[in-house]
Specification:
heterodimer, A: 137 residues, alpha/beta, 5-stranded parallel sheet, globular, B: 843 residues, alpha+beta, 9-stranded mixed sheet, 8-stranded mixed sheet, 26 helices, 39% helix, elongated
């Protein structure tokens, strides 16, 4: 089970994401339509995965990605892009996003992508632990 | 007779006195018409593609939002606008009615998209038992109203509609204030959004309710027996409830004299930073921020809690009950550990008595008191009997609504159960990724690699469509056709699946089939030969295959989609919008109802415009064409053919030439046609028997239509991919029109009429021609001595071959009516033509 922060200014997409992810997996979703609030939440709580739309007014997903990475370089961020904006998805990947998914997507796509991210997260943690153990020896 | 011969001689000796063309550039009017046609085709194709995409989103289990729906519909609307404008321009202003139809559809779509909920005047308040869906009282009040009508026990009370909120805001000038505050707050500053929300809440609390509303609330309160009520928000939209729900979602134990204040508090609680951020980006609207409020008698509960009619984690069938002492406000949130009961098959299979240290009770002055649970209330707070009674009640409610329920309940002082709220329970399911294999093992493949035109699978006996006899299609059949005609739409509901040898996923028929949820595979080459009539087959419209017999694995395959997605607003809006987009009412272009006024959807408009545009294009050669832009094609054949090039039909070196040679032709259809003409060559007129000749003379001299037509030149309007050729061959007039572009848009149309011989002889030639055309796969309509024929849906390469044969056919057909003495002769010529390499030896 993991904790996911979902950020999308489209309320219905946000509601769908929460329902689909919680309905088909053990992950818990904290959702907000406001990227500023997302930043605030990130300052208080820790998440296994940040799922964010790219195009949002005020503070877009790219900025949020940058700020989240600033707070925690290991933050795992998956960006959601609109159809036909592959360039921004590539830019996000270059800026350290773990993965991207293009809207509209099938529920299987998002669930598999989350699954992949969570497994990566586990590997990174294990790796870190082992390194620390080796170094302490 | 002599006079007739003189006239005839005069016509034949008529010299073309037209001087050299004034200009060799394409005539602007024709060019414009052609360019409009191309514009229309591009729009047509864009429309069908967007529609296919939208249908796919609805049926394919996609998650999408309103932004997507609005954008797609906007693009669609623009393309339809272009399409209609192009047709009107092509037709010189006719079909203005289509623009009217377009506006009406666009208007309906705008209404569907712009307002998820159109807040229209509604009662300000209603007793709970009268609150129904669609009256803007919100989900919570509607649901409780329904439970009350079912005869189940819920506290007495009433709803205050979202419309009442609008009335309140308008009366108090709150709308303008809210808009101003939102626009003054900074979208990049969370603190500023908080302050804005606070200002709005303060302003709401400072305003009095309008007299009418306050009066109604007071009078409804007067009818309640309990002196305390609960005031609860009842949002119109589940997702806005989920996003914007404020802290005052429920206020318990409210004395009557505080109800107005609490009502305002609940309304004001919507203005959180989240909702302000939303309003900032989308504009303040009642679509998002309109709330019904529910006011019900307070149940001074001994015990309260939540009942899940099903296990939300999925799996086995079980009801789960959480219970706490006192009011239910502690049942969720984890402040105390509730008692948990799991009921399976009518008995408690597991229970866990929680350590309930605290409980909420109504405070004498209003509000709630948090206090220690007294020692005598330690232990389970529900008896087995009560647990089972709750479970049974849950079952009744679940059965009524048809889906698992999440129910809030309270045990009154008298021990009876009160329902406080019921809403759908989300039951998580294991994501099943049991993908279907592209090829089913152990099943005999009859056909493969077709295009999926409408997703799904179905089985039934094969019915081969012959002679367009749609009324003979038996119910439950797998319909197999050679082409994807939109006219088959009338029969789609009788077929369980459709297989077409040609066609694409963006054709009119595919759109109709997806709409009707009839699985379909198109582009299934050879289907008419590979699928024997009457054989039971399974059509796999997931991968484009057809199997022998019933393949159960395929038939059980999930249809895609998900209940959660189907319940989402974007899904429901799109589904509703599609009703103005996809249905096709204009099925038969020959019917009287094929009119702009009958167009009720974008699909109707598109089909109508496409059909009429082809007619308009065909008509290009019907008007008398001026000498402007015409050149003469010079060849070894004694044929006078004038060419008008609208672009790309001739090689660049022909630009300034009045006379051009066949090798300068660049028009794809013209090249194909000319290849056939040149292959047959000129063999001179057929020897004519005396009766035949006299028949020509008499007929020509008396038929004014023929006489007029004889004066016309043979000419062809060409472009790189288009040809519209009016041909006078002997005493006949033929128009061959061909457009060779994409597989969907390419076609050949052919008309043939007139003739110099008497009717029976002319009809023999018509017989000969129609036999050949049918053999070539044209759809042929014969009326006396005229033929109209059409071939399409097979792609430009195949049409090119047909054009070449048509060129040959036109050459050999010259004056055949004069030598066809008997019907048998027409059949003999036909046999000879098709078996003799598309030529006649005796020619």
């Amino acid at each position: 089970m993991g904790r996911i922060l979902a950020v999308d200014d489209e309320l219905d997409m946000l509601a769908l994401l929460k329902m689909i992810i919680e309905g088909y997996s053990d992950h818990q979703v904290t959702a907000t339509n406001n990227p500023l609030e997302a930043l605030e939440i990130l300052g208080k709580e820790s998440f296994d995965l940040i799922l964010t739309d790219l195009k949002m007014p005020g503070l877009d997903g790219m900025e949020l990605l940058g700020l989240a990475k600033q707070q925690d370089p290991d933050a795992l961020v998956m960006v959601i892009t609109a159809y036909g904006s592959l360039e921004s998805a590539e830019e996000a990947m270059a800026k350290g996003a773990f993965d991207f998914i293009t809207k509209p997507f099938r529920k299987e796509q998002i669930l598999l992508a989350i699954d992949k991210a969570m497994r990566w997260r586990d590997l990174v943690r294990q790796n870190k632990e082992m390194k620390e153990r080796l170094e302490s020896k | 007779m002599a006079a007739a011969l003189r006239t005839l001689k005069k016509w034949f000796s008529r010299k073309d006195r037209t001087g050299p063309p004034v200009s060799l550039g394409p005539p602007p009017a024709l060019l414009e018409r052609y360019l409009q046609y191309k514009r229309l085709l591009a729009a047509n194709s864009a429309i069908l593609t967007i529609v296919a995409d939208l249908q796919d989103k609805v049926t394919g289990g996609f998650l999408f939002d309103m932004h997507y729906v609005r954008q797609a519909c906007e693009r669609l609307g623009k393309e339809v606008e272009i399409l209609v404008a192009a047709l009107i321009a092509m037709s010189g202003g006719r079909y203005g009615g289509l623009e009217e139809a377009r506006r009406q559809v666009a208007q309906l779509l705008t209404e569907d998209l712009a307002v998820g909920i159109k807040l229209t005047p509604a009662p300000l308040t209603l007793p709970l038992e009268e609150v129904r869906e669609g009256m803007f009282f919100g989900g919570k009040a509607e649901k409780l109203g329904e439970l009350t009508r079912l005869g189940l026990k819920a506290p007495a009370g009433f709803g205050v509609s979202a419309y009442a909120q609008k009335v309140f805001f308008e009366a108090a000038g709150l709308e303008a204030f809210i808009r101003r505050t939102i626009s003054h707050s900074h979208i990049r500053d969370l603190e500023s959004l908080r302050e804005g929300g606070e200002a709005i809440r303060e302003r709401i609390m400072a305003q009095g309710l309008p007299d009418e509303l306050a009066g109604e609330i007071a009078s409804r309160l007067g009818q309640l027996r309990a002196d305390r009520v609960a005031v609860r928000s009842s949002a119109l939209q589940e997702d806005s409830q989920f996003s914007f729900a404020g802290q005052f979602e429920s206020v318990l134990n409210v004395p009557h004299d505080q109800v107005m204040e609490r009502y305002k508090e609940v309304i004001a609680s919507q203005f959180t930073p989240r909702s302000l951020y939303y309003c900032h980006t989308s504009g303040f609207s009642y679509r998002e921020l309109a709330m019904g409020v529910l006011i019900i008698e307070m149940v001074p509960a001994r015990t309260a809690g939540v009942l899940y009619t099903d296990d939300p984690r999925g799996g086995s069938e079980a009801a789960i009950i959480n219970a706490v002492c006192g009011l239910g406000s502690l049942a969720v949130g984890g402040a105390v550990e509730p008692d948990i009961f799991r009921v399976e098959g009518g008995r408690i299979v597991a229970s866990n008595v929680g350590e309930k240290t605290r409980m909420h009770v109504p405070a004498p002055e209003g509000g709630i008191l948090d206090r220690d649970v007294p020692p005598e209330r330690q232990g389970a707070c529900l008896s087995e009997e009560q647990v089972l009674a709750l479970t049974a009640l849950g079952r009744t409610i679940r059965e009524h609504f048809g889906v698992p329920q999440d129910i809030e309940w309270a045990l009154g002082p008298d021990g009876s159960i009160y329902l406080l709220q019921a809403r759908p329970l989300r039951v998580s399911r294991q994501l099943r990724l049991d993908y279907l294999p592209p090829k089913i093992k152990d099943a005999q493949v009859l056909l493969e690699n077709g295009i999926v035109a409408s997703r799904g699978a179905a089985a039934g006996p094969v019915h081969l469509l012959k002679d367009e006899a749609l009324q003979e299609i038996p119910a439950g059949a797998v319909l197999v056709t050679s082409r994807a005609s939109p006219e088959y739409a009338v029969a789609v509901n009788r077929a369980v699946a459709v297989v077409c040898e040609t066609g694409s996923a963006t054709s009119h028929l595919a759109t109709v089939l997806r709409e009707a949820k009839v699985p379909a595979v198109f582009g299934a080459k050879g289907a008419l030969d590979l699928l024997p009539a009457g054989q039971l087959v399974t059509v796999d419209a997931f991968y484009g295959n057809v199997y022998a017999g019933r393949v159960e694995g395929l038939l059980k395959a999930p249809r895609g989609g998900d209940e959660v997605v189907r319940q989402s607003r974007a899904f429901r809006v799109l589904e509703r919008a599609l009703k103005h987009i996809t249905p096709l009412h204009l099925l038969d272009p020959r019917a009287d109802s094929f009119r702009p006024e009958a167009c009720l959807t974008y699909h109707d408009i598109t089909r109508f415009a496409h059909e009429k545009a082809m007619e308009e294009l065909f008509q290009m050669s019907a008007g008398r064409v001026s000498a402007d832009g015409t050149r003469t094609l010079i060849s070894h054949l004694p044929l006078e053919l004038h060419l008008i090039d609208l672009g790309g039909g001739l090689a660049p070196e022909a630009a300034d030439l009045v006379q051009v040679r066949p090798e300068m032709l660049r028009s794809r259809p013209m090249l194909a046609y000319w290849k056939g003409v040149a292959a047959v060559g000129w063999k001179g007129p057929k020897p004519v028997d005396l009766a035949g000749f006299l028949s020509v003379v008499m007929s020509a001299a008396t038929d004014t239509n023929v006489r007029e037509k004889l004066h016309e030149k043979n000419f062809a309007i060409i472009t790189d991919d288009y040809m519209n050729l009016s041909n006078r061959l002997g005493f006949h007039f033929a128009t061959v029109e061909a457009f060779l572009e994409t597989a969907t848009d390419s076609y050949i149309s052919f008309t043939f009429y007139g003739g110099g011989a008497e009717l029976t002889r002319r009809m023999r030639r018509v017989r000969f021609l129609s036999l050949v055309l049918q053999h070539l796969g044209f759809r042929v309509v014969v009326k006396e001595d005229s033929i109209t024929a059409r071939a399409d849906g097979v792609g430009p390469e195949v049409l090119e071959e047909k054009l070449e044969i048509l060129g040959r056919l036109m050459m050999v057909a010259k004056q055949l009516d004069m030598v066809m003495l008997t019907d048998e002769e027409a059949d003999r010529y036909y046999q000879e033509f098709i078996s003799g390499g598309y030529n006649l030896e005796r020619g």
